[in-house]
């Protein structure tokens, strides 16, 4: 229940604007002093300011005292309101520098500043200048008092009622803003497909949701073994704690609170920190630790709970996505192994192709030479997809694949069929998946990596940019790696000779932009392992 304390009955019980006793404080209680309520007094009469401060000086509402701000004109009040957007209530005179200065200020507060939270109490010594019924209907004020009726008791009652109203409206508004932040966070974070990036996003959003907090971090607790808990990511005072054991970051009492919250399966709140849990279906972060918030009000506790509930779904989604991605990777490796099984000498060939294809794609993206074709998704997919470029070799007889010499014309025709075969196999496999995937890109690579930029390649004789970009990239990577390493039908070439050939074939066999990107990567020492 709110704690309201009025003045003691003494010599200040005298007339404020009319005779009446001051409130009896017998039922009042005192509480801890928190950030004060800001009360703005706007009146051109200095005595009104002085008397108001005397009467309300000892008022405490909900454990918070009053902080008085004074303005003697509408202009002064505007400046104060701009500097103090958290003013709870305004005691406002009507007639000041002009006959309607107070009413103009009301319009400025509501329309100019867009402040709907502050409670406005209009008090006037000249009711005829601003008739009550007309003002109440025409202006967004919360109370109207003639100065002749404002006793100490009524001023106290009016002020406390205004503070309580502001408190409720402020709580509703903060709740609304918090829910909007949660919805926005969900919409943004649920697009993440990487657990690390999602976790970082979660703690960043918590910091935005609770700006008073000194910092927050997510910790992972493997199989409930809290002693092995580590910090996944943190903000504020925990920004450098990533990867460290929780016990090395927090004092024993705070660690005990995290362990207790995990054991009980529900959040825990203290005056200086909170522990919120993520109830996930799959292994994920065990808890969110928030420090230095100075005690969370109930509305913010509920917002944290709602946020964690929503983010728990997000963690499950990211976990499922990662499982799916790993299953796809395993599928790609299994299919790539088919070609390796048939052509054992090139066992590491597909892995090297994957690294080179990714590096070339990233370089093209950085150079911007192919526009938006080399976007993030393209660069993410091409490394694995390129490992499927020779999957069609499963249909080529071993005596052709492993022939130690040159192929005759009929064998060449058979060998070239692997491109079309690989494309068909992977296209059929990608159908149920839908969209752009490792399999769909693998299909276009398998079918197009032997096309040539000048149109003399196979199987379709495509020219220039009609060849898929993925195929143009893998064409360079494939030739480079094939020439650089020994094959059944040839010895390995020297690096300089391979590079000279690729440069010479720029514009004929290869896309010149891809060759430029390849050379740039090579000059930096090649792709990362």
Automatic annotation (TrEMBL):
Stretches assigned to the Response regulatory domain: 38-162
GO MF, one example: phosphoric diester hydrolase activity
Domain HD-GYP: 324-529
Xref: InterPro entries: CheY-like_superfamily, Cyclic_di-GMP/3'3'-cGAMP_PDE, DUF3369, HD/PDEase_dom, HD_GYP_dom, Sig_transdc_resp-reg_receiver
CDD domains reported in the protein's UniProt record: HDc
Gene3D superfamilies the record matches: 3.40.50.2300, Hypothetical protein af1432
Biological processes, Gene Ontology terms: phosphorelay signal transduction system
Ranges for region Disordered: 1-31
Keywords assigned by UniProt, alphabetized: Phosphoprotein
Modified-residue entries (4-aspartylphosphate), positions: 93
Acidic residues bias: start-end ranges: 10-23
Pfam family, one: DUF3369
Keyword Phosphoprotein: yes
Keyword Phosphoprotein tagged: yes
SUPFAM superfamilies: CheY-like, HD-domain/PDEase-like
Highest rank taxon of the organism: Bacteria
Identification of the protein by name: DUF3369 domain-containing protein
